[in-house]
Amino acid sequence: MTDSSLLPWGFDDIAAFGARPHLAPHRLHEQPMFTDDALADLLDRLPRSVVHPYTMGDDPARPDQWRRGAETDLPGKELLEVVARGHLWLNLVGIDRHDSELARLVDELYAGIRALVPGFAPIRTSATLLLSSPSAMVYYHADNQPNLLWHLRGHKRAYVYPCTQRFVSDENLERLVAGETEEELPFDLGYDEQAAVLDLEPGQVAWWPQNSPHRVENLGDMNVSLSTEHWTAASVRREHLWTANYYLRNRLGRVPRSTREHGLLPAAKVAAMRLGRRAGVLAPGRQRGLVPTFTVDPEVLSGVGGLG
Prior knowledge:
The chain contains 7 helices and 14 strands. The chain has 308 residues and is of the alpha+beta class. The longest helix is centred in the C-terminal third of the chain and has 18 residues, at 233-250.
């Protein structure tokens, strides 16, 4: 067993890092900053522009029911109470830029991973704290860069699917990575037959290979998790390749014949994409984002009130 202050990982955890869906232990949940009182204080200190409320339906095949809420000025304690009984998902975006203690913990986590995993050298990292209701879910989607889901409170189930044509087409992945669409992808409940199912308890971190489609369900209690994202030379190279393929397909009318990430052809694609962007010929995609359609209302059981 290899050990560090927050990461009591074994050899299998180290071998699985980033390569396959996996659960590993951590000690982050033992920190006092994740109690109700500490979280309420954190919410009161944060600029509310980084506290993004969402709500959703109950059907994992209906991503159109994922809705953004308006910025809320509820006191932290009251906001937590609404989340604990409602149907909400709060993303505290870029939390490591707004709280020095949490930034220190994220730095410690990544220092531990660098010490344990040979060759792991992130270029940069970011973190989002997730506070979510007992029945909340996140719909089927994929992320551009690799993520780690550090579970702190409650119980959560992640379904992770193979990153193959059946589960995410080349066209959809190109559009997502190029920034032309949001993270959601077409979903069929039959996909679950091929999913790796990860049941998270406090003190576990989940990961999966870059761009793997996944969805998440809470299992009956309020959840607190920390999602961290990291960029490496390899993950950025993959992003650039898929973005180059998007431009080949959609701006130049050429169907990409290869998704190889190493060699002369991939290097030429990425170089051409960079030159095109510098010349202003190939502008990066711009996601429109969701327009707020509800307010967080403590007078409503679900916490989801009307606008206006």
